[in-house]
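#struct-pred

JT: dropping the chains for the assembly here, can someone run the whole complex?
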Amino acid sequence: EAGVTQFPSHSVIEKGQTVTLRCDPISGHDNLYWYRRVMGKEIKFLLHFVKESKQDESGMPNNRFLAERTGGTYSTLKVQPAELEDSGVYLCASSQAGTGSYGYTFGSGTRLTVV
Amino acid sequence: AQRVTQPEKLLSVFKGAPVELKCNYSYSGSPELFWYVQYSRQRLQLLLRHISRESIKGFTADLNKGETSFHLKKPFAQEEDSAMYYCALTGANNLFFGTGTRLTVIP
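RK: done, full complex below.
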């Protein structure tokens, strides 16, 4: 079984540019989560999809961030325009319905550096 | 509001020594607590859950509701335990993480 796949693994962009991160969850996992880890700080929740619907987007920092999950499969997280403080590692996780938080499987993350 | 505190950013112990990674939390309801671990060049993965009361790789963690703590312990540290450890709790249907503790086991 393929795990949670994220790409790119690294991205370096200039301030003001646009970047799109992608996450492919484990097949059949209805729940998909985005998190962000900033150096020295906690891994912070961004949002949660159940299939194609946004269940909770309370962690999205501002309207420069746009997440979608086309057809309830893969998800994209677009940052436009990127700012320096957006740098960090973006983690995606998926879980089956009903498994709760213990059923999370994480991807290897995308390291975003905004210069 | 939920909050997870890991007071130590870095912790170094010698191989064979006991290790304790501290975690304190605040949560208004009945929390479910977890420890996640990330080894070098690997993904973040679940180490153990308080509800399972299990020992994984020699690690245990007991939920102390009076002290609102969920410290991770191992009696004899091994070099392969060197990693980043995150304490987390559930809120609704997502996880809230602490800032993590980097454990280094010195041979």
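JT: nice. Chain B touches chain A through 22 residues (CB under 8 Å). Chain B is about 0% helix and 45% strand.
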